Amino acid sequence: MKTIILCICSFLIGVGATGCIGLKMWFEVTNEAILSKLHDNVTFYRQIESGKPELVQSAISGSLEWFIKMAEDGENSFWINNNNMAADIIAKGKKLQSELQAKSNKAVNKD
User: Fold this and answer.
1) Under a CB-based contact definition with an 8 Å cutoff, are residues 94 and 68 in contact?
2) What percentage of the chain exceeds 70 in pLDDT?
3) Exposed (0-12), middle (13-18) or buried (19+): which is 93, by Cβ within 10 Å?
4) What is the pTM of this model?
């Protein structure tokens, strides 16, 4: 009887550990996708900054807040390993967001 209980407990511990590892890997991949998209938004904006793409800037501005929040949630998560690149991308996203808000405020004040 002790052997059966030991086998069942070992099996449950193995399943639990495998589930936790799988969940951690899923969170890592999701966080990398979010950081990649945030980085793409910042890079894309810088490439079009010299023209007058107001609609594109507005779309990027709208998505930046969501991506920054998701990236910060990932950065603060137990399941995701933090690194300097992630913090740098989040900082760039916040800087761009503040620049866009300042431009938006100037445009509103002109009107």
Assistant:
1) yes
2) 84
3) buried
4) 0.53
Give the pLDDT band of residue 110 (cuts 50, 70, 90): low
Q: Both tokens of residue 69?
A: 């929040």
- Report which of 63, 95, 46 is spatially closest to residue 87, judged by C-alpha positions: 95
3-state SS string for the chain: CHHHHHHHHHHHHHHHHHHHHHHHHHHHHHHHHHHHHHHHHHHHHHHHCCCCCHHHHHHHHHHHHHHHHHHHHHHCCCCCCCCHHHHHHHHHHHHHHHHHHHHHHHHHHHC
Residue 111 has pLDDT above 60, yes or no: no
Under 8 Å CB-to-CB from 48, ≥6 apart: which residues?
Answer: 56, 57
At which residue do the structure tokens 């951690």 appear? 24
Exposed / middle / buried, residue 76 (Cβ in 10 Å: 0-12, 13-18, 19+): exposed
